[in-house]
Design goal:
Strand order of the largest sheet: 6-1-8
Distance between the termini: 115 Å
Largest sheet: 3 strands, mixed
Structural class: alpha+beta
Order of helices and strands: HEHEEEEHEEHEHH
Strand content: 5-15%
Shape: elongated
Number of strands: 8
Bound molecules: iron/sulfur cluster
Helix content: 25-40%
Length: 213
């Protein structure tokens, strides 16, 4: 019958309208900014940089490899690599970004920078109250504004952050095991070489033969 769909739709609206006076979950509006709806785990806005521990400089995961800068479609990331190095989370000396800017007036929240980063150093933030009166400079976020702790990452994306932590811990354990195996192999090789050196006859001498006394 013509109009059945409209009537069904109006019935849903009426049910929710009347029901909203009795059941809070039927209310789909909140009194923002006093009230806020929780954002889903996968909500994303603009990227931020992660640091481990309490020191945003020492713990910054970014090694200034510039992959994200190259891959960003609207080219809104600007990085200047450091001249010196600092230890990364594995203790390996790495470069770090002397400058890391993101122009969020241009960023389209595509998350490609996050996907391509090999160091789990850049993630998507949920912060959306970023309006400014000045369109250009104030929407250019600097390294200091972009750097946020791993604890913050866990707060906004708990499931994803736990998976990332596990991946990093596994990688660190694998690197440690590899280092240990290499050290053991080197020690074995050195021992074998030393044993071969002992067995070798001195220059000009003869090697002992079976039966000789
Ligand atoms: S989210 Fe997309 S547009 Fe924004 S900085 Fe990352 S790669 Fe560039
Ligand atoms: S955020 Fe990741 S991809 Fe971008 S420069 Fe830093 S380490 Fe490289």
């Amino acid at each position: 019958m013509i109009g059945t769909g409209i009537l069904k739709g109006m019935a849903v609206t009426a049910r929710n309208f009347v029901g909203s006076y009795f059941e809070k979950e039927r209310l789909i509006t909140v009194q923002y900014p006093e009230e806020r709806s929780p954002l889903p785990e996968n909500y994303r806005n603009f990227p931020f940089l992660i640091y481990d521990g309490n020191d945003p400089h020492a713990g910054l995961r970014c090694v200034a490899c510039k992959i994200c800068e190259k891959e960003c479609p609207p080219q809104c990331i600007y990085i200047v690599k450091s001249d010196d190095r600092k230890p990364d989370y594995l203790g390996k000396p790495q470069f770090y970004p002397k400058v890391f800017d993101i122009d969020i007036s241009v960023c389209m929240s595509c998350q490609i920078c996050v996907e391509v980063c090999p160091f789990e150093a850049i993630k998507m933030d949920k912060e959306f109250e970023l309006s400014q009166r000045e369109r250009f400079d104030h929407l250019l976020l600097r390294k200091e504004q972009l750097s946020k702790s791993n604890g913050y990452y866990h707060k906004i994306h708990p499931v994803e952050a736990a998976a990332v932590d596990k991946g990093l811990a596994d990688a660190a354990a694998a690197a440690e095991a590899k280092k240990k195996a290499a050290a053991e192999a080197a020690a074995k090789a050195a021992a074998a070489k030393a044993a071969a050196g002992e067995a070798k006859p001195p220059p000009g001498g003869t090697s002992p033969s079976p039966g000789s006394s």
